Amino acid sequence: MSKVIRIKRGLNIRLKGTAEKITANAPRSRTFSFRPEDFHLTTPKMVVKEGAKLKAGDEVFYSKDQETIRFLSPVSGTLSEIKRGPRRVITDVVIEADSEDSYRDFGVLDTANMTAESVKARLLEGGCWPFIKQRPYDVIANPDVAPSAIYISGFDSAPLAADYNYVFRGKEAALQAAIDALATLTSGDIHVSVPKNDESPFKSLNGINLHAISGPHPAGNVGTLIAKVGPVNKGEVVWTIGAQDLLIIGALLKTGNYIADRTIALVGSSVKTPKYYNTKLGAEVSTFVYDSGLSQENVRAINGNVLSGRAISLKGHLGFYSTEVSVIPEGNDYELFGWNKPIFNKISATRNLTFSWMQPNKEYELNTNTNGEHRAFVLTGMYEKVFPLDIFPMQILKACMVKDLDAMEQLGMYEVAPEDFALTEFVCVSKQPHQQIIREGLDLMYKEIG
Amino acid sequence: MGLKHKLHTLKEKYKGKKMAPAFNALHTFLYLPNFTTQGGTHVKAADDLKRTMNVVIMALVPCLIFGIFNAGFQHYAAVDAAQGILTEPSLFGNFFTMDNFILGAWKIIPLVAISYGVGLGVEFLFAIIKGHEVEEGYLVTGMLVPLIVPVDIPLWMLAVAVIFGVVIGKEVFGGTGMNILNPALTIRAFLFFAYPTWMSGDKVWVHGAVDRAKELQAGANLDAISGETILGAYAQGQSVVYDYWDMFWGFIPGSVGETSKVLIIVGALLLIFTKIGSWRIIISTLIGALVMGLIFNGVVSAGWIDDTSKFYGLMDVPFWQHLIIGSILFGAVYMATDPVTASQTNKGKWIYGFLIGFISILIRVFNPAYPEGVFLAILLMNVFAPTIDHYVVQGNIKRRMKRLKVKTA
After folding, report:
1. Each residue of A399-408: pLDDT tens digit?
2. Which member of A158, A294, B221, B358 lies 3.0 to 4.6 Å from A305 by CB, making a disulfide possible if both were Cys?
């Protein structure tokens, strides 16, 4: 293992509702859904029509710009509805599930003689390509460009994140299978980060370059790992893959089936008994949310963590990349003198009559209130304290806002993804939407340069 | 439920109307809004701009209170001095007295009222015309302004200056967060150049001195009241009657809030502790001032300057005393640290602060008309802050380019 990477600039946000280490099987979901918004900048082109019968692993749609990238049904069932938004953009594809899954068989990959071509073809036809994302632009990787390295974060430091040591226990074989296959796709290394002083399942894997990282969130973000190991230069491409997604890739390679199983953490202060659930990608979140129970009514459910997840309704479905579902109270209420009274029950990175610095280990129950109004950037130096990348956060945000492509490129836009700016957004006293600004900036660059 | 519910109904009713910003500004002072996060992070930190500005105001209040008592104290001390009675300041003996407070409050509360009334009036007007929310920046500016003017400044002048400062210093650039120059210092600069007789000289710093001088001119048989600052005395080669502890505690004439160094240090500690004020700027400003002071001391001890020179008096001031006379400390803590107009990068803050301190003392010594340069130095560096940042950011960009070259080579 190479030397320990120490992250100093960051912030651990401790919230109530960490998942207890118990895994339950979620009841089988009646419907499953694909939301193309999970696949940023991908335009879906439907292969099947409403009413079509599907096996688990049958193609549902492909990417219009990159036709080899296919999106497969996670279950066998009937395609019941294609929902469209303005200008007939597909917003949701709903599949009504059968009671049992029958899988389409892709055949077991000959791992002894695998080549980049055979692995790539298998991942594309087996529906696992969308798990591979690329930087720059934080979009699904272009299969035609070989990456200079592959980065995987072996732990999650976000608030209320799933404990990977628990989730991956006993699944090392699937991880190893995925790693071995991915290794054929890059001339560089596969970099994996694990927490320092931790018995991570990743430590037993072969063929990876392991990095121990210590420090507060965003230590577990893959962007932090990239920044510390090899920031993306202009013209370079690296890939990132979620650790949980490796399991589905591993299963595809070993069994020949697209098995979209996922162990998710149901967390948050509004959940009665936060714990882990075995379910499938695209399942209704209500199958496990109501199994666990909610302690209040006015809540927000989030696909992912509270920093960079996407809000869904309680009738919504698990996202394609989600490893957790968070449920926290909505904060749509006024608070008398909320702007000047001393605050003990919320987190703050400053000490403006806020006292979270006195209790660094207390777990808080935060709601979705913005705690103030949107303003122009005023305070400086705040973002740098929670931003471990060698980039000027405020300057790059401003470059994105004024659409200055040259400045964006010079300031390091190729290295970042929106989630890297989640913490700066959290601490921002001007309540600026950092992640959205970065996303729009990346989209602009993708359009103009990429 | 009552009030909260009624206000909510009113807010909905006014939504999109011309007067909505004005209503919302008042509403948000009572209640933290019911806005929830949309996209992006689902939770947000507890502090907003209002809370931040509120803490800065809290850091200024001790200076204001001290300034009120000091205005009274300086007046009575000067009246006594005119009759040849020297007053030894003692905190609870003759400083924190009701007489001092009443006189000081009589002079200073109107300054505060005019500053906030006129300034916020302009802010509300602009918010309504331009349809944006009323922003909090002026809450701090409005508190700073009465603290950096002489106590006897006529109220109408202050009102004119505030209008100028808020409109030209801030609103024309787009409001809080967009301005290039510190609005409070823009107001002070306007007063200084438009009404110099009320902003400098040996009369304006103590209440009553100007009036007394006018009465004398009219032929009244009275003793003149001196309102000279320490810097003024040095500049004219007079002996200074105050000792260092007077300067440190603040029993000296000067702008309303700048005199008490100990309370400014308390304010600075609060700003640094709450992580609002940049300790980098404060420290580097003081270092810059000390360095310039040392250079002047060196010039004097090397004998390069004749003791008849008009600059000799100020050059000869021991370098460390520059920190406890004049407004350098107040400027370093409350003015230079304004995040909007200061450098925005951490490295840039060191350079920015150092140059402010350095240039402040330079102007202080060499300005023949007015022996103080802090506000001019800060305004000058406000203009150069983006340039400093540009070069700091270039360093980051160059590092990135170099990395690319190494890779592709």
Report:
1. 999 999 999 9
2. A158
Task: Give the domain extent around A419.
Answer: 370-448
CA B365 and chain centroid, separation: 20
pLDDT at A69: 94
Residues 291-350, chain A, touching B (beta carbon < 8 A): 300, 302, 306-309, 311, 326, 328, 330-340, 343, 346-350
Residue of chain A minimizing CA distance to B406: A233
The CATH number of the domain holding residue A148 is 3.40.50
Q: What is the pLDDT of residues A19-78, one digit of tens each?
A: 999 999 999 999 999 888 899 989 999 999 999 999 999 999 999 989 999 999 999 999
Burial group, residue B292, by CB count within 10 angstroms (0-12, 13-18, 19+): buried
pTM: 0.92
Name which of A309, A351, A382 is nearest B42 (Cβ-Cβ): A309
How many distinct structural domains can be found in chain A? 2
The answer to whether residues A248 and A375 belong to one domain is: no
**A369, B32: Cβ pair inside 8 Å?**
yes
Residue A238 near chain B (CB below 8 Å): no
Q: Residue A72 falls within a domain, yes or no?
A: no
Residues of A in contact with B36 (CB under 8 A): 300, 330-332, 368-370
Among A211, A233, A255, the domain-final residue is A255
> Does residue A392 fall inside a structural domain?
yes
B75-112 pLDDT tens trace = 888 888 888 777 777 777 788 888 899 999 999 999 99
